[in-house]
Write a structure and sequence with these properties.
7-stranded antiparallel sheet, binds copper (II) ion, mainly beta, 6% helix
Amino acid sequence: MARAPGLAAALLVAVCVSSVVSASSGVAAVRRSSPQPRAWTNEAGIEHLHFRTAPINVLPGQNSVQMVAIPRNEKPTVDGYIVRMRPDVQYLDGRVPPVNVIHLHHGVWSDAKHGPFFFGGEEKTVFHIPRGYGYPYKASDRWTLDQMIHNQRPVPTRVRLVWDIDLIPASSALARTVKPVIPVWLDVRGGEDYPVFNSMSGSGEHGAFTYPTDAKNPYGGHAPLNEVRVPFDGTIVSAVGHIHPGGLYDTIELFRPGAALPTGRACRRESIDITDSRSATRCAAATPGSTAHSVRIFRAQAHYYEPAGPVSWDFALTASRPDWRVRVRKGDTLRITTTYTSNHISWYENMGIALLFVAPGDRSGVDPFSAAVDWRGVLTHGHLAENNVHGGARTSIVDVRKLPNGPLTTEVRIKGYTYRPGDLSLLGEPGARIPTVRQGHSLLFVNQDHAGYEWHTITACRVPCNRSTGIAFPLSNAPAATQFDSGQLGIDPMQMGPHSSPATNTMRWRTPSNLQPGTYTYYCRVHPFMRGAFRVVR
Ligand SMILES: [Cu+2]
């Protein structure tokens, strides 16, 4: 195997470090006596490479997932170690599309050896592997890209995914100092092709919903999908996370059967950081039915640049610091949870993912059951200009509360990105009346746009829902008792089974029949300029 020499070197270093451990009075002393680990900078031998896909045709309004093989000219041409990657999406002229127009939901790069080793969501976290380590790469490796590009407008366009790679060629002297790392993927819905969950307004504790902790029967009685068993002794050297708008953080814990908590307490108080200024605590319980205890080792925490708070893609996530090292043992379990704000807003199709890089056989990390690990990371970028259209400004869009009752309606057809009847653009015309529904009945919605890729939702937003469209407006913020969502009505030609696609595999959906009399507004989560309304009458 290609990484055998590096692994042997890692084991050699591990022997030296362990002798220091036994000769010292404590782990903290060892940390001080170790050379200070750092980030790779611009050492001679590091190549800064830039890659881009061929033009990708983005269909009108599409929000689908595509798998493509990455051709040879979109990868490094020599063997070596990857130590940094940065993702982005561009128009063909090199401009970065505004997130309210084209949005990189995710791109996941995988290789045939280890599976996913790099990803880019709209948070655009830069991956760093710290000095002394690298992800081994062979020019013959086969890479695939799982891309989800979301077009929020009914206009076709063309973009490319682009990415920078810092590579230490295997032929360089520097390469001989590099220890190999392998990626470990953690996902709250691990193993699913479209790994998402919903969090509803008012759920969870203290205005925050943690998945799977606060979910009712999240895994249907089957084994948890958010845990990965560590197959070897080693040291985790790098971690990054992925969340969606509304997300606060991904938390990674390490479980060790029979281990004592560093504090010696059965229930460790865990902080819930709602915002920079507001937090609460909860009991971080051990795995139900086992004596394994856990310590938090990393949190990928969102910092929102968004003026409206944690409601849009205008954020960056922390990644691990270059000196962060966590020692793991074979048989340990890594577990990920993810926390979303649940104050007044429901979030649909949320993700909670993290990617770790682990150096097998490396024992240089801090044992988190012997000494506290600082789980805080660092932001990898500031506010991005593509997140500048926030929305939420006053407009001339009709306030439907003022409209007189129209005829009783049983069906709304979605055609040409318009809800008929009831679209706010139609209700703004002179003499317009709002469609009505008899209390106790439901309203059937039928998507009549292209079943294969023009997928629409009917999602409640707080009345009158008539402000300008942007990354922070509309939101799924109807009162909790009347919040509803249809899912993405569409048929995915690539859908292989449950949990494999954003589409619901149906074109029809009915509103809940228990809505109280009143006026309701809704929008399309995929194309948020689409708005509609109806009124429930006695
Ligand atoms: Cu839509």
